[in-house]
Structure prediction request, 607 residues.
Amino acid sequence: MFLANRLTQLRRRTLLMLLRAFQLALAALFLAGASYAQAQPPLNETLPVDQVRPGMQGYAYTIFAGDQVEKFDLEVIGVMPNFLGPKQSIILVQLKGPKVEHTGVVAGMSGSPVYIDGKLAGALSLKLGIFTKEPIAGVTPIADVLAGGFATGPVADSGSTSPEGMVSAALTGRAGIQGGAELRSIETPLIFSGFQPAAIQKFSEQLSGLGFLAAQGGTTAPRPDDAKLAPGDMAGMVLVQGDVSINSACTVTAIQGDKVFLCGHPFLNLGNVQLPMARSRVLTTLSSDLASTKIVNAGGSIGTITGDHLTAVSGTIGPAPTMIPMELTTKSPLGTKTVRVQMVNHPKLTPLLVGITAFNSITQNIVYGETTTLKMNAEIKLKGHAPVRIENTFAPSDALNPDSMPVAMSVMSTFMRLFNNAFEKVDVEDISVNVESVPGRQSFTIESAWLEKGEAAPGETLRLRVLLQPYRGTPRIEETSVRVPDQVLRGSTLRLMVSDADWMNRASRGFAAAGGPGGPEGLDPLIALINKERRNDRLYVGLFVPSPTMLWDDKELPNVPLSQINAVDGRPAPGSVQVLRESLASEVSVPMSGPVTGIISLNLPIR
Prediction:
């Protein structure tokens, strides 16, 4: 009986000890959260840059792993007046503490709120040098952060570069002071999820030219607390989301109502924008003597990035803007696979995002294989305009570039032509790309061509034979017919051109096909011109007569009266008017199983 009572007392004592330990743990967590909240004064308790002095002590907040915002110390080295521009100073600080002395200034740390004498002084934004032994960083003063975040104006929709953009480009450029002692923006990681390194490397020139630090990461399911941001948390722009994703990630500096200030420097200095904003979750921090970086998973959308300026990226908590849906389907004898994503609608970003997403989606598809001929059919739906259609075939080559790269570059090039038009903003509603993979390298080179007769009469039809050389195959002859127009003058000489699509486009459209002078004056004519461009898996035969053709936008006006020709010929053409010395009287094409290259020109006397 005594033993039983003793056991009961021991159990009660153990339960009481466990309960007390649990209560202490809860209290510790509460106190930690309270101390973090209390350590960050309200946004109106700020320290002006003119009150900052060397030797002042401070601290900053960032995340090194998980969702835990951590504090690290710093000391003011001094102030650098007019560093970013006239009256835009930088506070130079030295970071202190075991973690930051081990990692140095970390990519993704930009925007970390900096407090000096207990007041919000600014955002960590710059780092000094590379391979440095001490973590020295630059801080954008809080007044400049808030001023950049509250910049107003129309949403940018052009590719022009502002003076502010040129300052940013100089700041983040690679050609700094010799020896690597320059202050440059802390890199903002561009997180690629679902992308292989090979896909990122193929576009490294474009990415590095924009100042991106490409990093691989993942995505996490949206959480109810994603939008509950605090200074020191991480967020960024959503560029692509879906089966694959591309997101930027930097640290939140301050929050005012539903307004969020982050980064402390520009992302791309795009100005006023409408881009989705998402929460970022840190897995860990990778320490490197060259470039330490945070390993990040992209979280759920929490609002809209509204500003990307010299001293801050800013946004609002709430609904995200509409994105462009894109569907890419790859078909081969192994089966069919489809990748679905959404991407931002922005003239500087969308063409590059389309190219890299298309390339990755094709090459990382299990039904895709190298040394195959790719038949591409794409459609771009535009609000208020006819859809843009692209059809081409791409054969593998002996170059080291992946065979799918020309497909991606073709779609990317078309987007650049659309977004670079000088007439109206492009509103893309949907993108669909279908790629069929056919085994083998199917391509043809034009070797020679001949007519059955050396001359012809008006209205006569002649047979034409073309000798084609397939890749590593037996030469073959294709036969077609050419009809001489009834109204051709006797005694004249016509030109018969046997060529690929590119040469025929140039001959019949002049410089307009190449995007030079004489291009279309309007988005609708540009769309019509793109849709009229010939396919590269055709053998084209064109009969040209020696009478001028006037090109006006997407329209071809053959046999224009001399009075009208003289009004524009030899003078700067009004608008998009262009005059060609020949007119395309007739055209035939022969479908082929792969791309055709080459050109043969024949003279045809008319008796």
Remarks:
- Residues 1-38 form one domain.
- Confidence is low (pLDDT under 50) at residues 21-39, 152-179, 511-518.
- The chain is about 20% helix and 40% strand.
- The first helix runs from residue 2 to 39.
